[in-house]
Amino acid sequence: MEGVLNLADYLRKDFVYNAWANHEVLAAVRSSGGENTRSLQLMAHILAAERVWLERLRQVPQSVPVWPEPNLSQCEAEADKLGGEWHAYLDLVTAGDVNQTISYKNSKGEAWTSAIVDVLTHVVMHSAYHRGQIASYMRSIGQTPAYTDFIHGVRQGLVK
Questions:
Q1: What is the homologous superfamily of the domain 7-155 according to CATH?
Q2: Which residues contact 59 (CB under 8 A, 6 or more apart)?
């Protein structure tokens, strides 16, 4: 059936959206002066959490804290790196079975096992949740947040 996405394509599209939205928020933070500590703190957390989850999926040791010190230039560089790394990971994992599970320890040291597809869904939703917090905070202090609605990205041809 034409126009129907398989799960692998759907996940890739989600992560294209996620990378685009992260870059949009970072651009809004930069244009607001980049000194917005709460917005930058949340954005640093988004990117660190994405890194942590990617490392869990790859079964490698955690290299960053979940709540790192906020730094705009470092966040921009990390967002650039993560976009490519997620793309490469998705190409590998979606060639297999995303319903397979991984075992890992969370930031509290608790052992868990989750389906890869559930982790991937969590990463995108977690990031969107905190981007919403950033938008709300920026509005509350008179700044203009990024417009990161998924449908906006699709309509503009920015998410394919």
A1: dinb family like domain (1.20.120.450)
A2: 102, 104
Residue 61 CA to chain centroid, in angstroms? 19
CB-CB contact of 48 with 67 (8 Å):
yes
Helix (H, G, I), strand (E, B) or coil at 73: helix
E strand segments, 63-153: 101-105, 111-115
- Which residue is listed with tokens 């955690």? 62
Closest by CA position to 132, among listed 121, 141, 143, 145: 145
> Residues 97-133: pLDDT tens digits?
888 999 999 989 999 999 999 999 999 999 999 999 9
Report the interhelical angle of 116-140 vs 7-31 (nearest 10°): 20
State the CB neighbour count (10 A cutoff) for residue 159: 19
- Ordered by start, the domain boundaries in the chain are 7-155
Please give the pLDDT value at position 141: 94
The Cα 73–Cα 43 span in angstroms is 12
Residue 73 is which amino acid? S
Burial (CB count within 10 angstroms: exposed 0-12, middle 13-18, buried 19+), residue 23: middle
Residue 140 CA to residue 36 CA, distance in Å, equals 12
